[in-house]
Amino acid sequence: MAFEFKQVEVKGVDGRLRLAIRELIIPESGVTVIVGPSGAGKSTLLRLCNRLEVADDGLIRFDGRPIDDTPPLDLRRSVGMVFQEPVRFAGTVLDNLREADFLIGPAAAELLLDRVGLDGSFLTRLADELSGGEAQRMCIARALATGPAVLLMDEPTSSLDPSATRTIEDQALALAAAGMPILWVTHDTAQMNRIAAHVVCLIDGAVTYRGSPAGLLTAPDPRIAAFLAEQPS
Length: 233
Fold this sequence. Notes:
By secondary structure, the protein is an alpha/beta fold.
């Protein structure tokens, strides 16, 4: 398993539960998609995995060990994250990769770009001049620069056009096939069906389903049926 959650609770400033997970295991292979409506707690769950948020109660294990046993900065080198909007630092693509690994040279940087479908010519391109899809692939390469064991992706295609979206999805599937477990958040069940090996459905901060993508479509929980009914046909 990549992550294990037991009796995990996250509360809002008003004291109400934002997330309440009795027990959840995230597999250590393939793409696991966390799906559910807006406000369900998907991004909160993801952020718990690298301690961008900290649970109020319960236990989270990463690679079999309590997540609190690892200093946050060390944890984030092992648990890479790609955000909804591409985060671009000033300078070239190579400069951006060096934000993750300041010792990285052009040859190693070119290999990273190759993993996300960009060629070596991008190393000298200014990050601010990249398209949205190119910038997001640069961000994936930057996340990979620390040699993470797992990659977290928080709705990484929500602002991209369909072509760029499919490119990012294909790159994620390729990384997963090469042995990189990926935890991907989306509210889009069509995307889930394209990329998911495993599915976790969150509604109102609770796990309502875990299993295969096909199984979600026949899950008996009426809240899941209501969520699915809101999806575009």
